[in-house]
Design a protein that fits this description.
This protein is 44% helix and 0% strand. The chain is an all-alpha fold and 93 residues long.
Length: 93
């Protein structure tokens, strides 16, 4: 890798910083749209529709406390995945 080429770890850190900025802007825009009257939610190219949804979750700790860990295992799934952490050089955790 040449000296003028950014290392993938450095680029990934920069990309994640950009994503954080974009996610903050997305939150601002969502709040603005939600505050608009329905008739004012259309732009030149896109229209925003606000839909309320409900997500049901299970409290794993409560389930285990109520029916026991062995019985609760029947209802649980495990997923294995890779995580790429970016640490500042000299600041490894």
């Amino acid at each position: 890798m040449s000296e003028d080429t950014i290392h993938p770890a450095d680029e990934l850190f920069a990309v994640r910083e950009e994503i954080a900025i974009l996610e903050a802007r997305q939150s601002e825009l969502r709040a603005t749209i939600k505050g608009l009257d329905v008739s004012a939610r259309s732009g030149k190219h896109f229209a925003a529709v606000v839909v309320e949804t409900t997500r049901e979750t299970i409290d794993k700790k409560l389930l285990i406390a109520d029916i026991g860990e062995e019985r609760a295992k029947k209802y649980m799934n495990a997923t294995t995945y890779d995580v790429v952490r970016i640490n500042k050089i000299g600041d490894f955790k």
